[in-house]
Amino acid sequence: MVKFLIQRPIAVLMAFTACFIVGMVTYFTLPVSLLPDIAIPEITVQVSAQNTSARELENTVVKPLRGQLIQVAKLKDMHSETRDGAGIIRLSFDYGTNTNLAFIEVNEKIDAAMNYLPKDAERPKVVKASATDIPVFYLNLTLKSDSAYGKTDERAFLDLCEFAENVIKRRIEQLAEVAMVDVTGLLERQLQIVPDPDKLAVLGLSIEDIENALEQNNVEPGSMTVRDGYYEYNIKFSTLLRTGADVENILLRKEDRIVRLGEFCKVGIVPAKEKGVSMSNGKRAVTLAVIKQADENMDDMKAAIDGTMDYFKEVYPDIDFSVSRNQTELLDYTISNLQQNLSLGFLFICVVAVLFLGDVKSPFIIGLSMVVSIVVCFLFFYLFRMSLNIISLSGLILALGMMIDSSIIVTENISQYRERGYSLRRACVTGTSEVVTPMLSSSLTTIAVFVPLIFMSGIAGALFYDQAFAVTVGLFVSYFTGIMLLPVLYMLVYRTGLRGKSWFSRIRINNPLKEHTLDRFYDVGIDWIFAHKTFSAAFCIVSVPLCVFLFYFIGKERMPDIDQNELIARVEWNENIHVDENRHRVNALFEDLKAETVEQTAAVGQQDYLLNRDRALSSSEAELYFKTSAPAEIPALQRKVYQRLKEEYPLAVVSFSPPETVFEKLFVTGEADVVAELYARNKEKAPAAGNLRRLERRFGELTGISPTGIAFENQLNISIQQEKLLLYNVSYSELYRILKTAFKENSVAMLHSYQQYLPISIVGEEKTVNDVLQQTLIQTRPDDKGEVDYVPLRNLVKVAPAEDLKTITAGRNGEYIPFRFYEVDDAVPLMEEVKQAADATGDWDTAFSGSFFSNRRMLDELVVILFISILLMYFILAAQFESFVQPLIVLLEIPIDVAFALLLLWVCGHTLNLMSAIGLIVTCGIIINDSILKLDAINELRKGGMPLLEAVHEAGRRRLRPIIMTSLTTIFAMVPLLFSFDMGSELQKPLSIAMIGAMFVGTLVSLFIIPLIYWFIYKASPPTPLRKRGKD
Question: Using one digit for the tens of pLDDT, what is the confidence trace for 426-441?
Answer without folding.
Answer: 998 888 888 888 888 8
